[in-house]
Design brief:
The protein contains 6 helices and 13 strands. It is α+β, with helices and mostly antiparallel strands and 202 residues long.
């Protein structure tokens, strides 16, 4: 999924200027990194929120069209209004085609309903992790990582080392020697808490 964000350079800075921008229906932001100067910008609030709702917006390389000039960026930070659920400020980081990036990528769990521990054992799947940090080049970044639970038995768990990743992608935790558990099947009586307690991060 390719996502492009249109933005214009923002000349006025400060809290007062940002407040006026929000009242006018735009979101203040900044783009930085890749050895270039940071640039303050503004984005149409409605257009931004439509893209922001997509899972891929948070874990993909995005295209920032700033005053007609396009560059690849990652979402790095954002602030939400505590009541209105509107974006108050957003930060993007430029990415290089030749340097590895660290990004949190979501897990998509499949075949939980046919896992022996669920279908035969009557257990439930405990999602211990829902995302993980990966390291890769921008071109190799996956939107999500699929985890097949079809063979998972009661009391067993899936660890990072058991997950097949696309070429060029690695788990940051695993590279540092931590083989964390991602999902497990627990007895329905104990539920998620039991699974999490019985399956510690390696």
């Amino acid at each position: 999924m390719s996502i492009e964000i249109n933005a214009v350079k923002r000349d006025l800075k400060g809290t007062g200027a940002s407040r006026r921008l929000r009242r006018a229906g735009t979101v203040p932001g900044v783009v930085y990194g890749a050895g270039k100067e940071a640039v303050t910008l503004e984005i149409n609030a409605k257009e931004l929120f439509l893209e922001f709702r997509h899972e891929a917006f948070h874990a993909s390389v995005l295209t920032l069209n700033l005053d007609g000039k396009k560059e690849s960026v990652l979402l790095r930070d954002f602030q939400m209004h505590p009541v209105r659920n509107t974006i108050q400020h957003i930060d993007f980081q430029r990415v290089s085609a030749t340097e590895k990036i660290h990004v949190k990528v979501p897990f998509h769990f499949i075949n939980a309903d046919i896992a022996p521990g669920v279908k035969v054992g009557g257990g439930i799947v405990a999602h211990i992790l829902t995302e993980a940090d990966v390291s890769c080049l921008a071109k190799d970044l996956p939107e999500f990582i699929e985890i097949d639970l079809a063979g998972l038995e009661m009391g067993n768990s899936v660890h990072l080392s058991q997950i097949k990743l696309p070429k060029g992608v690695e788990f940051v935790q695993l590279a540092h020697g931590t083989d964390a558990a991602v999902a497990a099947i627990a007895k329905t009586r104990g539920g998620v808490a039991d699974a999490a307690e019985e399956t510690p991060a390696a």
